[in-house]
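Progress narrative, work stream C.
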Amino acid sequence: MTTSKYLPEGWNGWDAITGVKTMNRIQFWEWFAKQSNQYQKMFKIWDEVTVYKFILDRAKAKKVVNMHGLWQDAGLYVSRWAKTEDMADGIKIVDEIISLIRKGVTPNATPWNRKLLEPKPKKPVGGKETPKEIFRKYKNFPKDVSKEFYNEAITTTVKQLWESMLDLDPREYLKEALAVTKERVYTDIQESIKGRFKDELLEVDAMDKNQSIDYTGKVIHDGKESALTLHQKLIAVYAKKHTGFIDLADAGAGKSDAVLNTISYLDTKINVIIAPASIINNKQWQRYISNAFKNASIYMNKDVFSKSFTRNINRDRRNNRRVFYLVSYSFVSGQKGQTILNRLQSQNPDFICIDEGQRTKVRDETKKSKCRIKIQNMLTKIRTQSKRIKVLMLTATPVPNTVSEAKSLVDLVIGKKREFNKISTFNSLQNMAEMHVALGLHSLRYAKRYKNKRGNPIKCITETHKVSANYNLKGSVKSMRDQSFLGLEQIALEAKLPYMMKELKKRKNKVIIFTKFVTGIVPRIAEACEENGITYTFYTGSDKRGLDSNAEFFNGAQVLIASAALSEGIDRLQDYCHELWIVSQGWTHTEQEQTKGRIYRTGQEHTVRVLIIEATVNGVEYDKVVKSNRISYKGKIHDIVTNGLMPNEISLPDYTIKKIIDGMIIGQPRNTRKKLPDKVVKRLEKIGSGRLKARERRKHDKKKK
């Protein structure tokens, strides 16, 4: 929220104005049409969800009687208007809405969901609007919006100015920033925006002079040193302002270095970093800390149980050494997790970083994970002891599945549940819009544009290839029903393997083959590669030889068969690989984006190609119905809440495991010669008995020895 420093003198929100008459929906849209020319200039610089929330704010100000119906109207208006360049089309959409209301068509009726008109499509944008252009459009900001919306607009607009400059080099962004400070002011909100922006610019500009003595300022990756980016400096500025903040930068944007710069800028002495075990075990954080700070003391997981732990920390304090304690989520979740956190809490940490913060989400308040409960309890106790504690969460995907999960992350970071009481956990459009604004107030979004060494943009192309197969399932139906999705994945894989092997033989480049399911799937892909003379290695929860110290994938193997273990904290893949095949999709948009982020990140020199292979078995589009539609639905929720994009429609995928299996049985060929391969039948039987998983684990252990 803005401080009184940035509010115009004598400001009165609409809630202080008396005598406003109520309106019905038709009256509101007739009034709105008259304001369109003024408003649409602002709409051009806002994301779609902010436009939606603005319309609702205006409706509340005008005391519209049927707000439920207006939620639907506004969603329709924004989703259509956002796709046109011609402002006149905005009036046509309003006219159509009024016409439907007069005809008595309810918002959820079919005519409401059809495309109302064919707007002129937007022309390809040559680049982002400049900060100066964004600032100028606030000449048209109305005075009678609510005080809440006014304050939110200041905060989000200042961040929008910064976000438009994040891909620029220091000389360019300084030039653009100074241009904003010299702009003429026409409205109160412009004055407030300009004042706050200038304050933050001064902090960014003076940051190098205000660092801690032991901070080297070195950002080193693969032996290459670079300067701090604008994004990394801004995170420090916002972390200083907030008790809790979220860095929403994309993978490879340098979030870890932003954390270390923040620690130096705030000069916090006792620092706790909670991260996935894979990131701690591969010593990524240790390397970054050692590069950034001279003589820093680094403790990990079990060190807290050492008899000398407290004595060592006290010695570090006396010697004014900066302390880092790295603890993994798996340690926190374990039996001794609470003991670890209690001992850390007793050291009165100044700063806590929650890396890959989406892991702490809460889907159901009655079923919180042990890890979430323990971290939340620790933060509550520390905040009671000290108001100085700073919390910084890192995640590029804050909305794994629902609005409630995004809300739970913000709650954890800022520690103020009451601030979001008006946002319920229901996935309605208005809740998503409220969550989008709430998230924006406590985070900085950086949708990074990756470039190669020549300065050219790196593209990420996602394609879907469909394969089909027909199998007589006689003798396998019981196993399919018993094994549920894992059993169906075995069958779908058989349909995909011929195409996969054919394409791999054409490739000379390295390929990552990702599978969410491991049991039965990973060894079958390896077996097919072996049969076709394709070199391969692994990166799964139990077998990481592909990227361990010997790095088989970097040093020879063409294919890396990987599971969900690959999705977080793995770097350098972009130096060797630019092609990812997803043969067994996960359940969330989040995981898919994180997996792409292993190769689509800073350092990539080639166009990134992501191939999603979908199987149709006996006429049933298994992957599309079960996985792709579900991921698309969750991706839309993520885009609304995180990026402010309004979808044309959003609906839950409709399927059950019983319907899928019944469909495959009905569509099976009568010819018994077209039966499932014997290997698949045996795998299904062994999965049911639990023997397959045990056998695969023994084989992995034997190979590792």
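Work stream C, second folded protein:
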Amino acid sequence: MAPSTPKRKHAGSQGSPSREQPTLFAFLSSPSADDACQLESDAAYARTLASDTAQIEADAAFAQSLQAAWRNDAAPVAEPASTPMPSKVFSPRKRAKIDTAVLDKQLASMDFGMDPSQFDPAIDTTHWPCTHDGIAVPYALLAHGFSIAAKERGRTRILHVMTNMLRIVRHYEPSSLLAAVYLMSNHIAPSFHGIELGLGGAAIQRITLQVSGKKQAYLRKLWAQTGDAGDVAFEAFRDVVQLVEHAPLTLTKVYSTLHAISKASGPRSGATKQSLAARLLSAARGEERRFIVRTLCANLRIHAMRTTVLSALVRAHVLDDGTSQAQLAQASDAPIQSIAAMLQQADALGKRAYARRPDMGSIVDMLRDGIAGLQCAEIVPGTPVTPMLGSITRSFDAVLETMGNAAFVSEYKYDGQRIQLHVGNGVHVFSRHLETITDKYPDLCALAPFLSQHATSFIVDAEAVAVAPDSSLLPFQTLAARARKQVALQDIQVRVCLYVFDLLYLHGRSLLELTLRERRALLRAHFPQHIPTTAQHAGFQYAASCEHTSEMSVRTFFQSACEQRCEGIMIKRLDRPAEANGRMTQLSTYEPDKRSEAWFKVKKDYLQGIGDSLDLVPIGAWQGMGRKAAFWSPILLALYDPDTGMFQAVCKCISGFSDAFYKVLNEQYETAYLPAALDQYETNGLMADVWWPPTQVWEIRGADITISPTYPAAAGIVSERGLSLRFPRFIRERSDKRVEDATTPQQFAAMYLAQANIK
């Protein structure tokens, strides 16, 4: 049967991308086979709504019932100690009625985008909510700041907005600071806690329909115009008059309600989640509705990345804390000449601390002791460490020239999944992007008793690789075929071996400051190798390595890695180098969250054009012609800029795709078209026939990188113009990577410069 012809542009198309995590692109989607697991709870919710509606005789009675439900809502269930929650739950105190119009007018008059050094966080709070312990920060404060940030593109001004908001929160209600930080970063807990709201696009549609009273056809029209669930909610409520005025929402109320939504479980969990979200939306006003719905969809669209929020948190603390300023001055090698220099120094400490403890709750706790608390941040078992990365290289000659006469080791670069195994405070397995995948690898967890005979607590950095019964290596696709969640040990069919290449923590001590040679010696001294005998038993092996540094030895080892189905090799400096110009270069210590020149990756296709493949995100396409008229071709690919959250168009790709892949692509995106390009897309005016949500990462190779007048990728780094990839070719989909892991403009520019140096 011939594949269906792709439709050019469906302004009203609904559907959700093929991803486990619901996003705003699922908004207004129709139920499908993928939604079958929610049908029962949805049906229960529909019956509940019908029953409630039958008892409502007028809009006034309906509004009053919602208000009563809100007032009588039970206190949120306390989270376990491991999950950050507000340090106290606020209860209302009698106070004169709050004039919300005055509150909104006051917030609208505030310039959150001004330089924080000139901003005064002490403001009039007469019309703010109040608690037994003092002022409660209204959620309207964040909503106003979000609306400003959403219109900005420059990171500096967005950082100013975030910093000034956090200074106000810290000034009036410091106990809600963590709630504000998480709401700004569009999370309610660290990613490795695995806490999800569990509300899909269809559920959010029903909530908006219920609370606004609008018809579904009207919401579909709004979706076709805006393509954003938050904008739909904002417009749907524009002419809605509330018969009963709600008390202003507070930060802690929103944050605790989101936690209550995430904790709902059981047969009626769907109805419970939707009921809580409906109460939240019914109590919201104006811009609050837009950003509450976007929060439920997990996409605030304010261009504030995790690094921006982290920097804002640290800066807010330093600007208003004299102790921290004194600590920075004392720790500095030279007098701090300006506020800007002081803030940059604080940023560096914040990034260092977060790389070791990627948990905003831990960062907030550290700051209680001033900025010096960040200097004491160390890794601990049970909290993932942001991994160190290798630099991109084009040739052996470039690597050997960089290493010079220094000792180094070559290791196989396995085609598997990079993981961290933590033992101590339990047994935990984390992915390279800091997510908990413990229940995916019960066979790795089963290694803990064997390994604990030799070490009571440890953290290893390793690659989980699928292996055959004869221990030969299998491709990544075999490993990807394993189930991802709640895997039972007895059900495992694909056996795994853990190839360990680094030891980060041992017996209660961080090893990050040791050289690689020292860490390797400790690894081999404390952990014997283990060969698996069944699929239910994982192996534990040292990564294959070679310490010979001659060019012939390295090339021979590289060829061996390719023959063993590896991606290539890693070349790593072993020892601490001598100082150069007063500073250490190419450190052999473990540097979390850094792409170091002490590590280089040499992949087996390094001689083919550019030095490394690119990880790009498909964001749009044009209808094919001729033989490809039934498919989407070419496809527009983009880089990801972590500083701005923008996707920068880099090239069109037409090569490397099979007809079978094109058919799958048609099916995947058949109901996931966007009505227009997202404001997160920088395309330099390119207009695709269809736009897709950013949900996939593809590995792409090309002949070389050139300066381009057409594409905006990495513009301003090498040239005022952007860069583009010539003769791009699709290699494979990287299901192990998120879009946030895609190639960045800085990496792309570095590849261009390395290519130019060789030429």
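The two ends are 49 Å apart (CA to CA). No further action is required on this item.
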